[in-house]
Amino acid sequence: MRQSQLFTKTRKEIPSEETAKNAQLLLRAGFIHKEIAGVYGFLPLGLKVLNNIVQVIREEMNAIDGQEISMTALQDKAVWDKTDRWDDKNVDIWFKTKLKNDSALGLSFTHEEPITNMMTQFVRSYRDLPKFVYQFQTKFRNETRAKSGIMRTREFLMKDLYSFCHTQKEQDIYYDRVKNSYIKIFRRLGLGEKTYVTFASGGTFSKYSHEFQTVCEAGEDEIYVHDEKNIAINKEVMNPEVLKDLGIDEKDLHMEKASEVGNIFSLGTRFSDAMGLSYTDEFGEKKPVWMGSYGIGPARVMGVLAETLSDDRGMIWPHEIAPFALHLVSLGKEGSDAHKKAEEIYEELRKHKVDILFDDREVGAGEKFADSDLIGIPMRAVVSEKSLLAGGVEIKERKSDKDEIIPIEQLIKMYTNCCDDCNH
Ligand code: ATP
Ligand code: MG
Q: 38 CB less than 6 Å from ligand 1?
């Protein structure tokens, strides 16, 4: 994409009420748009990042036999009455509205009820199980606090996966598969080293649930990390019993602030019982369906990446998530050799479907470099009269600041994996 065509611009100043670092950075870089407090839209560069995060999660969900769907945000009161979660006394973050005929509607804050209700249409016999269903879908929550930028918003994308199993044992095995899948996901998202499988409260059906907590100053949670075991305990459940269960000595723990990027939960038969979701086993006997639910907040992940993978110049996106693979910057005036070369490189890489941002704007080098650092694409290639004289383009890695001059052909090869006798 040509930067001269991009409708968004980087900004020097952002509103003073924006106190979260992730929102400050992403607003300045032109990745997000603030609609109202706790409500943000995603602009071209930001949407690319969000979609990259979504794609990593999708690949891993498919790898554990997830089937992707998309449920509705508008919800029927009657379905939620069955678990008593319509009542504001039980759930205080609903956004509710009404149809013209006065019947009540709500905007989904999660989907256990409607998905369990829907599955009653498809699950009859033991042959119909197990099934694993997920979606990327907008949730609405009337959160009291919305001061963490895109890490806690009132309208947000969630990946929610639900499992439907024959038995508790089968459910437990799938729960472990999801846990391992999440470990892989956060590693791929560049958060592996800072993200801990964290013991948290389990609700009615299991002693603990697991949260995936990423250590981060801006996080709203407090966790106790055990370095050697590579696990953590949420402050909410920290007590002698948990320490005993996990065989952990309190002195081996240190407290960290963290943000919950994902969580996995055993639901037992709470929702299937309430919705009447059951199956007939091999012997014709009616049995309840065992369930689990598993969430990840892709936009919260993006916020945590902005908080943790950035410096005073801007973002440092990991490769899999970056909005573009390469930032090609031309310092030549229009008509100059440098500009022509830059155009040639852009066209050649585009032919090979390499996703690059091409700074073809008529602005000074200082502004181009500052913008490039702020946007944070992993690699930058600068074409100037000077670089051409030195033998090609100057490439610079955003993360390490290491730079070197390489021949243009080498740059092309780096991004196209072309072999020496390739005809491209
Ligand atoms: P928290 O404890 O942070 O309020 P939660 O326990 O209510 O979150 P879930 O309902 O399990 O979270 O949601 C699944 C995932 O969705 C969370 O792990 C988080 O990544 C994301 N998420 C939850 N609430 C928000 C929000 N308000 N804004 C953005 N992402 C969110
Ligand atoms: Mg939580």
A: no
Q: Which residues of 57-66 are buried (b: 16+ CB within 10 A; e: fewer)?
A: bbebbeebeb
Query: Any idea which ligand is nearest the CA of 153?
Result: 1
Q: What domain range includes position 59?
A: 32-311
Residues 204 and 345 both lie in one domain: no
Mutate to test the pocket of ligand 1, among 93, 139, 143, 201 (most ligand atoms within 8 A of CB): 139
**Which domain CATH number covers 372?**
3.40.50.800
Residues 228 and 362 in one domain: no
- Residue 16: per-residue pLDDT: 85
Contact 73, 106 (CB under 8 A): no
Which residues, in sequence order, are CB contacts of 205 under 8 Å at separation 6+?
Answer: 266, 267, 268, 269, 270
- Kindly report, residue by residue over 197-234, the tens digit of the pLDDT: 999 998 777 899 999 999 999 999 999 999 999 999 99
Ligand 1 site, residue 262, Cβ cutoff 6 A: yes
Instruction: Kindly state if the Cβ of 141 falls inside 6 Å of ligand 1.
Output: yes
Q: pLDDT class for 420, splitting at 50, 70, 90?
A: low
Q: Which atom of ligand 1 is nearest to the CA of 146?
A: 27
Helices (H), 335-379: 337-351, 365-375
Distance CA 309, CA 234 (A): 24
